[in-house]
């Protein structure tokens, strides 16, 4: 009977989103394949997200095949196969290269890992890329409409600030812009070309001197994709 040398792996890695079985022939062989870390809903990328990683943890040699819902090859995965020595469980990092999503639609696909132990079948993980940038605040108002995201906030009529919180994934900072279409909602000059990473910005808000509510739009652009955040300011109180 063949012994299996188990590396120190957490129960989550071994028994989470994976395939596990014993050899039906009655030997002590143990077969397991899983993704790590776990992503119960699959991999979800934002429109300007172009690099990511994931690991395959397996006791068997494997081969990976990507599938694209629309037939267009919008992401690549490397490596696409791994030889695993008998008696070992090996963790292999997958590297994803994703093209910016300029389609205005959600892109879907999946990756499938088939191992040399055919009884385990194929382990699959769905992947998708959203058509908009990663805005954390203001919150998305219409989460049921993935093709038409709406981010917005209502502001008081008085002067103050409005917090804008977002992530930029693309590395070409010179091509990133954050602009306002109204002179009463001010983007600080230092934030006009945000670098890759998370940004928490206080936009300047001037008091509304009129008795009519007014609207301003801030547009964030990264990797050729623009997402609009809408701010509505209340009217001045007519006392």
Description:
It is elongated and about 80 Å long. The protein has a 5-stranded antiparallel β-sheet with strand order 1-2-4-8-6. Strand 17 and strand 18 form a beta hairpin. The chain is built from 1 helix and 18 strands. It folds into 2 domains: 119 residues, Immunoglobulins (Immunoglobulin-like, Sandwich), CATH 2.60.40.10; 100 residues, Immunoglobulin-like. The chain has 239 residues and is an all-beta fold.
In short:
By secondary structure, the protein is mostly beta strands. It is built from one helix and 18 strands.
Task: Produce the secondary structure layout.
Layout lengths: L10 H5 L2 E5 L7 E7 L6 E3 L5 E8 L3 E7 L6 E4 L2 E2 L7 E9 L8 E9 L6 E8 L4 E4 L13 E5 L4 E9 L8 E4 L4 E2 L10 E9 L8 E9 L2 E9 L6
